[in-house]
Amino acid sequence: MTKPLLQLTDLRRRLGRRVLWQIPQLTVPAAGSLLLRGHNGTGKTLLLKTLAGLDKLDCQALQLHGLNVAQSRWQQQLRAVTVYVHSQPWLFERTTQSNIAYGLQRQGLRGSHLRERVWEALEWAGLQDLAGQRARQLSTGQQRLLAITRAWVLQPALLLLDEPLAGLDQMARQQLLELLGHLAEEHRTVLWTSHEGVADAGWVDEIWQLEDGQLSREIYRGRQASAVVSFHRPASHIKL
Questions:
Q1: Secondary structure E strands in the chain
Q2: CA atoms within 13 Å, Cβ hemisphere of 183
Q3: What is the Rg, in whole angstroms, of the alpha carbon atoms belonging to the chain?
Q4: What local confidence, expressed as pLDDT, does residue 41 receive?
């Protein structure tokens, strides 16, 4: 049996005296598309940032690939295996291809290997025609697509996307959904948030619901689109 990518025990987040959420056990599988839903203010963004090692981590234990991680290394280990993409991503005042190349260059990639990886990413996202265009001159949907591509090319074990569909027109939304579908086909682990229903995402493996400080999940076996459309016919309903 494949070990989960991440497992956190007694994960909680406080805002002053208020407990925003408390999760007895949170398990992130080694592969799958996970949709995190919840109303505004429930702490979806904070949960993603916590898993990315970008916010305070308050839990009893953390396991990575089934192995216990020392508390002093929690945030370091999370940052090593995740990439977080904000709903309003910050892009460099450079071209599209230069934005994609940035993270790879930080990893030490140079020359022909760098160019090949950048072009592969441009093709993957359908951004070839925009390769030389300034990133900040792109439309909102194109910028969102670029930010996800810039994260994808780094091949993180866990990709965290904060409201990738928010504020997009129908065409851009459909393009982003297709890209998320490609990620699912690649058997990567992607956790993305949405405060609205997503009836046309039949490839979602799990839907997580954050409500009243509790997190529950619905597991969809076989990725049946009819189950995702209704949100009421899961194979199982489990408290995380």
A1: 6-15, 18-28, 32-37, 61-64, 67-68, 82-85, 158-161, 189-194, 206-211, 214-219, 236-239
A2: 33
A3: 18
A4: 87
Nearest CA among 20, 30, 31, 29 for reference residue 55: 20
Predicted TM-score (pTM) of the model is: 0.89
User: How many other CB atoms are found less than 10 A from the CB of residue 228?
Assistant: 23
Question: 75 and 53 in contact (C-beta within 8 Å)?
Answer: yes
Q: CA 81 to CA 235: how far, in whole Å?
A: 29
Per-residue model confidence (pLDDT) at position 231: 32
Please give the structure tokens belonging to residue 151. 């994260």
Classify domain 6-90+156-239 at the CATH class level. alpha beta
Q: What residue segments make up the domains of the chain, in order of their start? A: 6-90+156-239
- Rounded to an integer, what distance in angstroms lies between the CA atom of residue 28 and that of residue 82? 12
Comparing 240 with 164, which gets the higher pLDDT? 164
Could you report the per-residue pLDDT of 188-220, keeping only the tens digit for each?
Answer: 899 999 876 665 567 889 999 999 999 998 887
DSSP-derived letter for residue 228 is H
Torsion of CA 182, 54, 166, 189, to 10 degrees: 20
